[in-house]
Design goal:
Length: 192
């Protein structure tokens, strides 16, 4: 077995997937319509009016920032090369797509099951709980709070302080390790 092929070049499917993912990040970050691209291609809950079946494929090419893209593409490059060399390009691409679509279906199914049969709550219920908490905090003007949250919670907090369209809400995300200051100076508040 010739091991030099594992290190000499990147096979075509892995290389093209890395290029496509990088171009998608550039499009969503740099183009004025980036938020609309994310709003159309991100994977939404099946009960959402924003859900479309094609999102089971398109969500795989969206990333929440450079570090998210970098680490995913590094893992694809590290492990995907070996798989593509062993399986061949066509079988590797089939494997990649089946895994991606399968992960999306599983994510939708688990979310639906948690909401329907578990104690899960809808985004509206979650937003209402966060809004209620922020209303309580607003009454305590002499204190400062630090909230550490993932994008789902940060998106709801942002919507408390700033009116957002569905597309803006869907596309909103905070960068890793970012700090955002919010103030209750006005009735609805401001975001700095």
């Amino acid at each position: 077995m010739n091991n030099s092929r594992y290190f000499s070049s990147t096979p075509p499917v892995v290389l093209n997937l890395i290029i496509i993912n990088a171009l998608m990040l550039l499009a969503t970050e740099l183009l004025p319509v980036g938020n609309r691209i994310v709003g159309a291609l991100a994977l939404f809950n099946v009960e959402s009016p924003l859900f479309h079946s094609y999102q089971l494929v398109t969500y795989m090419f969206l990333h929440g920032g450079f570090s998210h893209l970098f680490f995913n593409m590094f893992a694809l490059w590290m492990f995907g090369r070996t798989l593509e060399y062993e399986l061949g390009s066509k079988r590797f691409l089939t494997y990649y797509m089946v895994c991606g679509v399968g992960a999306g279906v599983l994510q939708l199914l688990v979310g639906w099951l948690e909401y329907r049969y578990g104690n899960g709550e809808s985004m509206f219920e979650l937003a209402q709980r966060i809004y209620n908490l922020l209303d309580e905090l607003k009454e305590q003007q002499d204190k400062t709070y630090i909230l550490v949250a993932h994008n789902g919670i940060a998106r709801v907090v942002q919507s408390y302080f700033k009116d957002m369209t569905n597309e803006e809400y869907a596309a909103f995300g905070v960068q890793n390790c970012s700090v955002t200051e919010f103030s209750f100076e006005e009735k609805k508040g401001t975001c700095k």
